[in-house]
């Protein structure tokens, strides 16, 4: 289309040049005839009329050529106008495609943002649940430590109580052993019917206590344990 318009413009320029040459030649020929022939006024007027007719005919041809030039220019303008509107249509089509692509891109981005937001909410929820589990676990650990300390304290108190009971039973056994030894000595005294005084009895008691205290202690210790069990006390 661009080559066609250039060709038409070139043809119009050629026609304008030809018209200009014809006009110049006609003027030169008329002036030359006037100078060489020395015509009368009537002849001159007749020749002027003829020349005017020729001039008008040439002008009409020239106007026709100008009309051709104008027509060619109009054709070129129409071609440029058509090409302009075609470019506008192409531009509008590119804009439409760009807007469609932009809308699709924005929709895709919005979808991705929604997914990211949803995952972020899930992550926050899981984080809160995990923190709650950690807090619950710490509370259980604290309760376990508290219970362990309470059990340790109770165990220590139990051991102390058992130690106290053991000491009490050992004391009871020792006292019972002493009473048994005293009864044995009293029994021996009644059987033998000694006539010794109180000092000799105590001396004999002490001697007998030193001799038999280990054997008597084992027997009496067992009896003391049985007595403790019957009363509810345990060692």
Describe the overall structure.
The protein is mainly α and 235 residues long. The chain has two domains: 2-113; 157-231. Helix content is 94%, strand content 0%. The chain contains three helices and no strands. It has helices at residues 2-37, 41-192, 198-231. Helix 1 runs antiparallel to helix 2 and helix 2 (41-192) packs antiparallel against helix 3 (198-231). The longest helix is centred in the middle third of the chain and has 152 residues, at 41-192. The radius of gyration is 73 Å and the shape is rod-shaped. Mean pLDDT is 76; it is low at 211-235. Residues 1-50, 186-235 are annotated as: Disordered. Residues 10-34 have a biased composition (Basic and acidic residues). Residues 106-147 form a coiled coil.
